Predict the structure.
Amino acid sequence: MSENRMPQIEPGSLPRPKGGIVSYLQLSDASAASEFYQKAFGAQEVNRMMHPDGKRIIHCHLYLNDGSIMLNDAFPDQGMPLEAPQAFTLTLMVDDIDAWFKRAEEAGCTVVTPVATMFWRDRYAALKDPFGVSWAMNRGRRWSQPWRPTRAGNRPRASASLRDRHAVAEREGSDAGLKDACHGEALVKAMVAAPTPPLLRLTLEQRDRQTVMAELAGRAPNHRASPPSRSSRRNDGQPHAGQKLQGEGR
């Protein structure tokens, strides 16, 4: 086989990629990178194709965190010179971020940001591998129920109490994490403190439509508001607006 002849591939013989988007990295040593990613991130190599020169990799496919990542060596002789990785970060969405971070650090990744609770309330960390690729790890908080708009006025409500949120922050983060977890709670407290009409605490299925409309209008069902008393006057002795003076209009 000549050095310019590519290997022949049977259609359908390659492992199928996983995930909706696949990162393809051109690195200084794709073979070493594959071994490192297996050790640092628990990746699994499922395919490797060598260049006819027997030294460089033209394609390496890894399964990593339920997705695919692909690698190859630089080929400056074919117009693909090596360039330092920059302006992107590969983010791993993980459940046990502490275990993932520890494994990557022990494998040889450089710590950029230790694991901490961030302002968006997720636990996050950032590292850089020996090949210059930036990695991040993110673990999202899972509340018992999401926030939903109500039928009346699309007013959001918090299904998890503030006390529950503090408990999660204390369990999963540090004091700084607890402080970060409170950033959005001023709005929640304001909503909780605001007076809530009884109607908003009921669903339309629990009450008939007539009662609902009556409460929105601020009166009882099938009851018309009484007109103001003719004898009612303001404190300054003048009649209320809309009242006629005695003898007026006769």
